[in-house]
Amino acid sequence: MAKESKTREYLGLSVVIVLILFVGYKMINYHSNVIEGLTDSSDSSDTKTNPQKLAAPIKETITKIEDAILIDKYRSDYENIIIDLEEWANMELIQMLGSGLVKTDSGADSNIENIRKMNDLNTFKSTLDSAMKFLDSKASKKGGGFF
Q1: pTM greater than the 0.90 cutoff
Q2: By CB neighbour count within 10 A (0-12 exposed, 13-18 middle, 19+ buried), where does 26 fall?
């Protein structure tokens, strides 16, 4: 049972890492195109003053990412990954607190690194919450009724 749980955890983490790497690659690729577009002087006045021309490549990139990650098809998998990662972050926080990493008798300076680690985990949980809200917003935009 524990082996199956660990396998599921590793599989979930692997999917998230691949997803993050893919999105990161796409963002870097997109940013380099935007930077090149902003520094190109051939059509400088039109591109800089026309928001529609600036917005078009952003929308195109969003569409490419949506097509690649298939939110509608894998929604429950993404939700499970987010839920599992939040559970993991909570367990890590409890483990850190329970192991006595923060020692009140030694002063704040000696504890600052461990406190930062816990704060980073809490920030990560906020990121997961934002991702879940985003998934929910994608579901509400699609509709689902007959009307």
Answers
A1: no
A2: middle
